[in-house]
């Protein structure tokens, strides 16, 4: 993870390193596959409140736009599409005077359209996103390993390629389960597609574990290898190639070479 949980950061320092808007609540750096949510806790005056729900453990965040109906544009659009666009979402909480506490890395669970008021006290539609800490989804997706491990590659692909935006009309409990199933299916689908070989160098997996040949997942576009992604954005690699793609001096060139040479679906 790029940031340390509960550590306090200067917002200006974050932007100096990664770029992105220095004023908006949703910041989307141009040169990094990252989205920053800077929660100021000052949105109650517009008829809604951001925060964690004790009932389901989700973080509910109202979209940007202080007047008129909110639409899926700019930062709202980025949050809606963050999974398929391979972008990691990081939540920061304002402590005042430009200081922000890093809360967690999040993943979108769903969204809803609610009624609120804008800055002119007019009624309008507000987009309310529901996020969950990524590490919780990762941990709980392991509960589906015994099911996914024995599915066919066609069945895994069908689950792994579900539309990550398909959230309206579903309860959050159902959506939470779907995200966990999809996370587990993605892992086993990529391993099945690799057929016990590194998709970077082509060599066989270096050793076997109790659960089969050992390969690691690498995201070709995201800043991290964790969380949901489209199957074509992820490859299975041997430990050596994974380390090369993350740490070597030629990692950028090696990554581009792989993107060009591997016929992913």
From TrEMBL:
<feature type="domain" description="ScoMcrA-like SRA">
    <location>
        <begin position="8"/>
        <end position="140"/>
    </location>
</feature>
<dbReference type="Pfam" id="PF26348">
    <property type="entry name" value="SRA_ScoMcrA"/>
</dbReference>
<protein>
    <recommendedName>
        <fullName>ScoMcrA-like SRA domain-containing protein</fullName>
    </recommendedName>
</protein>
<dbReference type="InterPro" id="IPR058712">
    <property type="entry name" value="SRA_ScoMcrA"/>
</dbReference>
């Amino acid at each position: 993870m790029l940031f340390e949980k509960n550590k306090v950061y200067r917002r200006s320092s974050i932007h100096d390193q990664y770029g992105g808007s220095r004023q908006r609540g949703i910041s989307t750096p141009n040169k990094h596959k990252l989205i920053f949510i800077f929660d100021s806790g000052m949105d109650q005056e517009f008829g809604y409140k951001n925060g964690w729900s004790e009932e389901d453990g989700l973080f509910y965040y109202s979209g940007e736009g202080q007047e008129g109906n909110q639409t899926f544009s700019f930062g709202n659009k980025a949050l809606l599409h963050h999974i398929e666009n391979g972008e990691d979402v990081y939540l920061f909480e304002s402590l005042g005077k430009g200081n922000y506490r890093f809360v967690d890395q999040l993943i979108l669970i769903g969204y809803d359209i609610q009624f609120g008021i804008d800055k002119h006290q007019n009624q309008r539609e507000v987009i309310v996103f529901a996020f969950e800490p990524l590490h919780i989804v990762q941990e709980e997706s392991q509960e589906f390993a015994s099911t996914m491990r024995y599915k066919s590659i066609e069945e895994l692909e069908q689950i792994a390629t579900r539309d990550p935006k398909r959230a309206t009309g579903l309860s959050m409990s159902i959506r939470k389960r779907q995200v966990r199933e999809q996370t587990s299916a993605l892992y086993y689908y990529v391993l099945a597609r690799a057929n016990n070989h590194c998709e970077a160098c082509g060599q066989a997996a270096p050793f076997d574990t109790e659960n089969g040949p050992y390969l690691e997942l690498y995201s070709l576009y995201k800043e991290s290898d964790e969380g949901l992604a489209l199957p074509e954005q992820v490859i299975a690699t041997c430990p050596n190639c994974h380390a090369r793609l993350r740490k070597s001096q030629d990692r950028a060139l090696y990554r581009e070479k792989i993107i060009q040479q591997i016929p992913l679906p």
